[in-house]
Predict the structure.
Amino acid sequence: MAWLLVCPLVASDRTACPAPAPRNVAVVIGNYASVPNPVLAEAQAEVERILTPVGLRIEWRQHRLTSAANENLNARATASLAIQLLSPAMEARLRRPTKGEVGIAFGSTAYVFCGRLDQLAQRALSDSRSVLLGNVLAHEIAHLLLGPGAHASGGIMQPHWGASELRRLEQGGLTLLSPQIDRLRCAAP
Ligand SMILES: [Zn+2]
């Protein structure tokens, strides 16, 4: 079964460029699905494992940081994104997602449907809820940074993840391909 992950599908045309200094990206997590902290921490570590080598330095933010702490993080970050982890009840109130979607991204905010994610993890993976969540988060962060045309025919930016992609994901083998890496490194803050 294919699982649709997200997405705007407008072509984009950018050229490759040399790797600049690491790019700071602030990501605010809204954990409305009550994902346990250890699972979320493992998922965040998985995101960093995937995105740090391509030049992204993720700064995780919480919703209830003091204004001074948020200002400090904002000053360092070159991009500020939000990811909402939605519960099954919240998902049910949305017109979207369409069947099979685990996440969607608009503008600077992405939404992850944790009920569907948990079902997929239980059905298709051995014990990798946090790894699946981390890969979905990395996919959505790339969407938010790349904008339209972020999907690829291989790697973590494939729009559909089937059994083979999930096996590779468990083994740490889903990564960004060079065209996406070039675009992430070249994209304006
Ligand atoms: Zn996608």
